[in-house]
Amino acid sequence: MSASGQHAPELRAAARHLGRRRFLTGTGAAAALAFATNLPTAGVAGAAELDAARISDDPFTLGVASGDPQHDSVLLWTRLAPQPFEENGGLPAERVTVHWELSRDERFRRGVRRGTATAHPEFNHSVHVQVDHLDSDRAYYFRFRTGKWTSGTGRTRTAPRPHGRTGALTLAAVSCQAYHDGYFTAYKHLADEDVDVVFHLGDYLYEYAVNSVGGARKYTDRVLPDVFNRETQTLDDYRRRYALYKTDPDLRAAHAAHPFVVTWDDHEVENNYADDIDENGNPPEEFLLRRASAYRAYWENQPLRRPQRPAGPDMQLYRRLQWGRLAQFDILDTRQYRSDQAYGDGAHVPGPESLDPRRTITGAGQERWLVDGWRRSRALWNVVPQQVTFSQRKLDLNPVAKVSMDAWDGYAASRQRVLAGAKAAGVENLMVLTGDVHVGYAFDILDDFDKPSSKVVGTEIVATSIASGKDGSERPANWETYMKANPHLKFYNGRRGYVTVGLDRDEARADFKTVSAVTTPGAPLTTAASFVTEAGNPGLHPA
């Protein structure tokens, strides 16, 4: 990559020459992407090995994490970066041996498993360790060591057995953490919560420039390097941006405290992109090079399993997790496979373009996978963690109201097919978890949103942002309009925070938790509202 942050001229020329189809399928694509993303072309074992005793500074500056809990295994993550803001985290292009340890107790007196893993330079010295053959429904503690350095301790857990009758589960849903908009205070509170798993619903980072004082954080005790004061374009840009975010102590604390299940939205690459179409009108084959860099950095910095490892500009992030017979989680990707937004990506009245039945927000393959999974589900609650608002959300009080073309409202046929699939599969307790909009919403999902009296078929819980949008307000200026225009909208709050959802055999309870400010650190946590929906009787009611 060139120092200007743009793809090198020879790479841009190669992308134009390849064309989209050949780019995605031809052997030339592999060479282009190897150049674009520093992929190893002859295996990852070729690099020399670094003597870990030579690492003079703490390499665990980005913390530890775990993710995607299964009934018999956990996925552990860390990344070595003694100088996190420098290229390659301050390490040479050599592989490093990392020791890991899993225990039943946080003092590591009751060890369960231990082993070694290799932190490869081609993967930015990240480590993904899958530990198998574990007891189900149990908490574990883990840590890493290399040279004289030992990481902090993380806590994770396994899920219950697939067919076990699990009594209860508490999850948290988070989204949208623009570093430059404020402090991650909500994560400090979340780290202290008694939750089983955290779902991150997208916008883990933002591509926008971050100035020397951290934007709205207004640092007086540090100066951020100029390398952050530009939009992310290259693999090195995205890697360093993850390093910036993960140096935040509150984010590290939340990752260490709970297993995360992550999915992306747009800003992990670029605002409001749709499949291979960016917002600036660049050729698709050129944008896919940027997407490949962003996807690779996402994989390197998240606690994801091997099936999610990207191949160039493609990464299958949609996947399914079971929590006994209590809950099935179908994690979606509504960004990578979608049709381009109709009428641009803003607010617009529905029209022939947005109502075109051929349009899709999930892609045909993911849509089939979702509905087929519901047909096979034996779970009481079928939960769909995903990115953008699913329920109809009218933005004004006009007879034909504008709606967001970037949300499911801009893909009405997709939503209709998904709801029809849920009905055909006999899904009685559907819950959609959503991020993106920087506010908290609680919706009743209607069989027909154009008929307010139609049957309630599920619940949508929208988690507000961790920091995006700065402090926000309890009742934004459009609060009254939205509440009047959308009778199925039961709650709307514009503060920052997160939501916890407790599921048991009888009901689901959603607690919307907010902080008063993020532009200054240390704000207290408040429960803004709580709602319940009964199993077998969809519809939200104040708790």
Automatic annotation (TrEMBL):
Keywords: Hydrolase. Transmembrane segments: none annotated. The keyword Hydrolase applies. One of its GO terms (molecular function) is alkaline phosphatase activity. Residues 62-158 form the Phospholipase D N-terminal domain. The keyword Hydrolase applies. Its EC number is 3.1.3.1. Residues 171-512 form the PhoD-like phosphatase metallophosphatase domain. Pfam families: PhoD, PhoD_N. SUPFAM superfamilies: Metallo-dependent phosphatases. This is Alkaline phosphatase. The lineage of its organism: Bacteria, Bacillati, Actinomycetota, Actinomycetes, Kitasatosporales.
